[in-house]
């Protein structure tokens, strides 16, 4: 039993650290650290910086232009970015549709889409959930009917993150009504500029515009935008969900948040809050170790499966708990609504500096236990796959 | 990085598991408890023959020189079937104190433990100490060539079966560990059962006369020996508690699959499924902290103590919630003493109480 990383992995870690310190766009890290919202241009800028370094495809095999890193290197990379307070790398292109394209797409599609993902020339969004299909995704109704060399798409998607900035959407659509619902689903790529695609904002309880409703009315999509086989979309969708394993626990970012919280709480003389922070610290330390256990399993020939659902559940619980304790640390100043119609639009009230952003983040992060397969769905997975219920 | 167990460690687990599954049935355990002996002497002999009683001792004392990982393996498996033999008391607490000391009788005493012939008990707890044992009221005062020991010790694990006691006393204004034989004049015992089916004793010492040669360690060395033994023992019972929690969720899964209500197995109900998932997750989180504590056993004292405190806090809180859920999901059967499941709850209560409960360790962790 041996926990330390190899010399080579430690050198790798230092390389990542040094790049973040010297070459990562500083103003973006500062803004992120203050809890301010990044503009579209800033999000593109930091992705472009990564692309220029050749790290955009951090979790891709070398043959498709990725880094070809080992699981341990990917783990270290993600953790260092979190620890340093860098914003998340958007998963929709590089971690979601990219791997589906290089695994199931044809040569033409690989040539057409992969380089733009690696250079962040295209902004992707994810067309999965629908108004009537959330956890029960296979009930989706958006229809794609073949007409000559096109599909005609009608229907709507919802909770589509950052669709307002997106160039492309990868979409699960129904191409056939089959007895087994999963068999009639296909995976197609739609350019957001196609006539008939409309995006409407959904404002979340923090007042932010992050998610959207996307409507498709007689949208003409060329048949060459179908990935893999018609009717196999469900298989690709499941592959996509299983692809991203370690990022979901966001341990690095939570460690950074915790250390900030501890600094805040140290000045408050509030033993009740101190106790909650300590409990959280122990829970986070257990999560960090669980992640390492799964990594070790993976690196030593194991195939960890549904265990990664624990990472999702515990990772998001801890993220949410952190935001909750930041709000508690604001005391009575948690009263003031910070959103775009609140004081952020006016002059700043008195009270601690972090109060407004803590409350925004607390409200915003209620999403964490809902997205990516709600935590209840994760429990269903563990129940079935691990406990055999 | 490799967090897998070595082949040798896996073999040890297989061996312990085999014994526990085939020999340590619930009925057998009940029989041992009813005998009032506190443990089963045939089993103890078997542990000796299998080499288990020599696991943590130095090779020059005749031991196998194993560390916390091997002990954790043993205790985790013991926890699954609720073994009641006094391994913790004799081998871990008393044995490692003697083994790590420069006591003259070290080799002889460790040999006695390894052969299974001798039991030792550590007497360090006094009433109203609130987990701080460094300033005992039990006194040892020089009287010519002899030392007279006076005082009372509480919760002496397996005290009724001990041949020797390691007693924490105050001698020349500093603490000391002294060895007292059970037959010594002035020593009296009151034995009673503990909630987990084991036994402990109250020890009263009235003008018990010992010599300088009975001093195992004094001052800082005595404190260090006690702290190290308690730290290791805390890790061991935490591993044991993880064994208990594992058994709790596995047996609850099996039970709910077989229990029919409303015309179907109650395991079909999602509200119960999610609770069993919670039990599983709690157990895995504890296991992760156990790994951390095992891996940090060679670190500096503070890191080591902190990771053990984090672990003990977590098993204290998780142990209660997991075993309470297990009882709840067994319904009326869960509160029947003739069912195994409630005995895990009792064991987990005992583990939380031993060597500092969850609150104590959260506090210690924060320091």
Q: Report the structural category of chain A.
A: alpha+beta
Question: Mind telling me which CATH architecture of the largest domain in chain A this is?
Answer: Up-down Bundle
Could you name the CATH homologous superfamily of the largest domain in chain B?
Answer: Butyryl-CoA Dehydrogenase, subunit A, domain 3
Q: Note the main sheet of chain A.
A: 4 strands, mixed
Total strand count of chain A, please?
Answer: 8
Write down the CATH class of the largest domain in chain A: Mainly Alpha
C-alpha Rg of chain B (nearest Å): 21 Å
Low-confidence spans of chain B = none
Give average pLDDT of chain B, whole number.
Answer: 96
The rough form of chain B would be described as: globular
Describe the structure.
By secondary structure, chain A is an alpha+beta fold. Chain A has helices spanning 7-23, 26-33, 40-53, 71-83, 91-104, 107-118, 233-243, 251-266, 271-299, 308-328, 355-364, 375-385, and strands at 124-127, 143-147, 150-161, 168-174, 185-191, 197-203, 209-222, 226-227. Chain A folds into 3 domains: 7-89, Orthogonal Bundle (Butyryl-Coa Dehydrogenase, subunit A, domain 1), CATH 1.10.540; 124-232, Beta Barrel (Butyryl-CoA Dehydrogenase, subunit A, domain 2); 245-385, Butyryl-CoA Dehydrogenase, subunit A, domain 3 (Up-down Bundle), CATH 1.20.140. In chain A, strands 1-4-5-8 form a 4-stranded mixed β-sheet. Chain A is globular, with a radius of gyration of 22 Å. The model of chain A has no long low-confidence stretch (mean pLDDT 93). Helices cover 51% and strands 18% of the residues of chain B. In chain B, the strands form 2 sheets. In chain B, strands 1, 2, 3, 4, 5, 6, 7 and 8 form an 8-stranded mixed β-sheet that branches. In chain B, strands 9-10 form a two-stranded antiparallel sheet. In chain B, helix 5 (87-100) packs antiparallel against helix 6 (106-114). Chain B is globular, with a radius of gyration of 21 Å. Chain B starts with 6 loop residues before the first helix and ends with a helix. Chain A binds chain B through residues 1-6, 72, 274-275, 278-279, 282-283, 285-290, 292-293, 295-297, 299-300, 307, 310, 313-314, 376, 379-380, 382-383, 386-389, and chain B through 1-6, 9, 69, 249, 253, 256-257, 267, 270, 273-274, 276-278, 280-281, 284-289, 291-292, 294-295, 310, 313-314, 362, 365-366.
